[in-house]
Write a structure and sequence with these properties.
Elements (H helix, E strand, L loop, with lengths): L1 H11 L2 E4 L10 H14 L7 E7 L6 H8 L4 E6 L19 H9 L3 E4 L13 H16 L5 E3 L5 H9 L4 E5 L1 H5 L23 H12 L5 E3 L8 H4 L14 H11 L6 H12 L11 E2 L3 E2 L23 E2 L2 E2 L4
Parallel strand pairs: 1-2, 2-3, 3-4, 4-5, 5-6, 6-7
Antiparallel strand pairs: 8-11, 9-10
Helix pairs in contact: 1-2
């Protein structure tokens, strides 16, 4: 799978923050660097691509891993997955109180916390889990450790946008293309559409509009984060289909279409290339891609072989075309 999908990200991005929820998860700096080496082997020869790594945070994460991460140029932080919240999150955190010493160490050493922001209480409506997580978990952590750098990944709600805006310079948020393009109706258009199912799930239109305004408004607290997740067709299309949207086949093209729809295409560069680098205190990339207003067709499937056995990956907007293309890409 890695060899199949890594070239799509490397085609359009000079670097990417790679999530650690593999099976088994990436729980140490050494494992993160080994994973980085595998990614570099999977991208085409001659491609300049710099994977930045996140490490899976658990209640057993050793404090020396925080120290090692703080001095490693290839590691940008630790990812907090509430246990059971998303793909391969079984090793995640059950009680934030159990990791406060770890978070305090991260704050002291300027190591960033990346967050999947959902509670997992089965009594909480799935559409409310992000808002409840902010109220019950993230906001209290930020009040107790205001110096801790936090990125609320793949924001999906108005409450998430408001939290980032109100929390100061140490808090930022990423937004995916699917949450900018679609509301929750898309999961049920013409029937159940499993390839639109991701976690956090798509939300009401009022939330999508709040995300649109935040992403295209020029606020440096918000930046690109695809949350691209490749799963095979047969894993998505079954009685208990897994969560995840594979957007890497045309991520920057989809973002361009969104910004263009708001008549704010001039702000895409900041969202895609500047805000995230500045928050993580990375040098901005100097190499560029050029987008042109030319239809870009997205394939029905990535890697499906002639037997059509369900092992292909169905990308975001499969079989459709977006209105922007990377210049020179065929």
């Amino acid at each position: 799978m890695l060899e199949r999908v890594a070239p799509f990200t490397a085609r359009q991005f000079g670097r990417a923050l790679v999530m650690p929820n593999l099976d088994p998860p990436v729980r140490t700096v050494r494992e993160a660097l080994a994973y980085r080496d595998r990614i570099l082997e999977a991208v085409p020869d001659g491609t300049r691509f710099d994977p930045k790594m996140s490490i899976y945070l658990t209640e057993e994460t050793a404090l020396d891993q925080i120290r090692d991460a703080s001095t490693c140029e290839h590691v940008l932080g630790f990812k907090l997955y509430p246990a059971g919240a998303t793909t391969n999150s079984a090793f995640g955190v059950n009680r934030v109180s159990a990791i406060m010493e770890i978070l305090e160490s991260m704050a002291r050493q300027s190591v960033c916390l990346q967050v999947h922001g959902e509670v997992t209480d089965p009594h909480i409506d799935v559409f409310d889990r992000e808002a409840v997580f902010i109220d019950q978990v993230l906001a209290p952590v930020h009040r107790e450790l205001p110096e801790l750098k936090i990125v609320l990944e793949h924001i999906t709600t108005r409450q998430g946008i408001e939290f980032v805006r109100e929390s100061g310079a140490n808090v930022a948020g990423t937004i995916t293309p699917q949450h900018l393009m679609y509301n929750r109706n898309e999961m049920f258009r013409g029937g159940i559409r499993p390839h639109q199912y991701c976690l956090p799930v798509l939300k009401r239109e009022e939330h999508r509009l709040a995300l649109l305004e935040a992403a295209t408004g020029g606020d440096p607290s918000f930046f690109l984060g695809t949350d691209s997740a490749p799963h095979t067709k047969n894993a998505k299309e079954n009685a208990c289909g897994c969560a995840g949207v594979f957007s890497a086949a045309a991520a920057i093209e989809c973002y361009a279409e969104v910004f263009d729809s708001m008549d704010r295409i001039d702000r895409l560069e900041g969202f895609a290339s500047h805000h995230g680098a500045d928050f993580y205190r990375l040098l901005r990339n100097t190499e560029q891609i050029t987008l042109e207003r030319r239809p870009f067709p997205i394939p029905e499937s990535i890697g499906t072989d002639e037997r059509n056995d369900g092992t292909g990956v169905v990308p975001l907007k499969a079989g459709e075309a977006v209105s922007w293309s990377i210049q020179g890409h065929v």
